[in-house]
Amino acid sequence: MPTLSEQISDATKVAMKAREKERVAALRLIHSEIRKIEIDKRITLDDAGVVTVLTRMIKQRKDSISQYEQAGRTDLASAEQFEVDIINTFMPQPLGEDDLQALIAAATAGLTGMQQMGQVMAKLKPEVEGKADMARVSALVKAALTGG
Fold this sequence. Notes:
single chain, mainly alpha, Hypothetical Protein Yqey, Chain: A, domain1, Arc Repressor Mutant, subunit A, 2 domains, 0% strand
């Protein structure tokens, strides 16, 4: 099975052949962000590293979308949303509510108190990053640790 980087490259080639300018631009943006990290750190990103980059890109675009909408720039907001949609095609399937609750329950088993929050989040992050909103996971962990 091809890696995420290879899938992005293949999708770029397909979009170029189909002459989809906006899609090509978005895919090249994704590829350049991945390459930037690889060159800066002198590493080759695995799929988990690529998912981390994609997650950060989605977060940045969602922040931009909210700012553009507040400023009344729906044209720019829709362009950012288009990029988010393309990035999402390469993200892993999101975790279901039951699966997420089960992972949190397993990670917090026997723990009480907020002082273990960092340990729980460190344990959960590799399993849920890219598959669930980390802010939501954090809130659910906090509720589990405080008995809420």
